[in-house]
Structures are given as C-alpha cells and as structure tokens.
C-alpha cells in the first residue's frame, strides 16, 4: 500500500518515506504494547510480518532510501533491518519515533483503542488513562523531520514508526486538526507513505 502526501511547503530539502512496522506479535495477539519496558525487547514481527517485509523489499516500488531511521521498539527495529539490508544501509535509532504511550491500557486488548480515539476527537490534549497527548506525539515526530531538514539535503530518509504516531504526524502535515487523526486513511502494517518530492 502506498500513499503520497504533498508537503505544505515547497522548501523540503529531503524526501521522507514514512513506514509503519510490519505485522507484529502484538497485532497477532491483539494487545497494546506501547511502553519501552515491553516493546524494546519483546513483541517483534510475527511470521506474517516477516513474510510481508521479505515481499516488500523484493518488490520495492518507492524511491531508494539513503538513510533508515527507526523507533527502538523490536518490531520497528526488525522492519528497518529488512529494508536497510536490502539497500546496504546501516539503520539508526531515534526514540522519538516510538509508539504512542497508551498509559494504563498497556498490555490490555487492542479493543481499547477506539475509546481513546473517541477522546482524541474531542481534545488533542487529553491524558485519560495516562495516554500520551496527541500534541506531545506530533511534537516529537515533527522534531525528527525538522532535525533532518537542518542536517542534510537531497536525501531519501525512511522513518520506521508506528500506526498512531504516523497517522497523527500525517494529520499535522496535512494542516488538519489533530483531533481528526482517525479520519486519515488507516496505515496498514508495512505500508509506506511518501512525503516530499
């Protein structure tokens, strides 16, 4: 699945490929894994996710990345490793690309997501269940791009992150209220959205 989002500005110095990790063990088990304590060492790619990534890199149809940057969670690390190996790159970690922290819902069923998203639609600053606020998520995600924009130009940078953070970032890049992030098309596992030229 591929999406292309036109940047708001004509002044992007780099092209970005925003990638959600492949299908994970957390997806398979239907559980929320959003804390570093559980996500960094456990809940990597499922067997289906491994197959997804093998197929994706074999049939690569996006611009060739010159850098691969990923969240430190196991599922994103493994996803990034597949792409980096395909193009002879050494991936690097940026903890700002981590999953949105779902607070008290950690380890519970993923059927709890809709109740958080309903609250999101009312208030981008809410912290019900000690969930990370939308504004905090978008701030750290935008900071990653802003830093690369300052450091390099003419690169194609693959950012491997998670569904909610990417959907929130794309909402901000489209200049829409963060409360509308669930109105963005859902980002499927191993999907890539191109931002920039």
How would you sum up this structure, described in words?
The chain has 197 residues and is an alpha/beta fold. The chain has one domain (2-195): 3-Layer(aba) Sandwich (Rossmann fold). It has helices spanning 25-29, 36-39, 47-58, 74-86, 113-120, 134-151, 163-173, and strands at 2-5, 15-20, 67-70, 92-93, 156-161, 192-195. Helix 4 links the parallel strand 3 (67-70) and strand 4 (92-93). Helix 3 (47-58) packs parallel to helix 4 and helix 6 (134-151) packs across helix 7. It is globular and about 40 Å long.
How would you briefly describe this protein structure?
With 197 residues, this protein is α/β, with parallel strands linked by helices. The protein is built from 7 helices and 6 strands; from the N terminus they run E-E-H-H-H-E-H-E-H-H-E-H-E.
Give the helix/strand layout.
Elements: E1 2-5, E2 15-20, H1 25-29, H2 36-39, H3 47-58, E3 67-70, H4 74-86, E4 92-93, H5 113-120, H6 134-151, E5 156-161, H7 163-173, E6 192-195
Helix pairs in contact: 3-4, 6-7
Structural class: alpha/beta
Pattern of helices and strands: EEHHHEHEHHEHE
Task: Please give the CATH class.
Answer: Alpha Beta
The radius of gyration is: 16 Å
CATH architecture, by name, is 3-Layer(aba) Sandwich
Q: How many structural domains?
A: 1
Shape: globular
* CATH topology description: Rossmann fold
Number of helices: 7
Q: Spans with pLDDT under 50 lasting ≥5 residues?
A: 1-8
Please give the largest β-sheet.
Answer: 6 strands, mixed
Ends: how far apart? 18 Å
Relative strand content: 5-15%
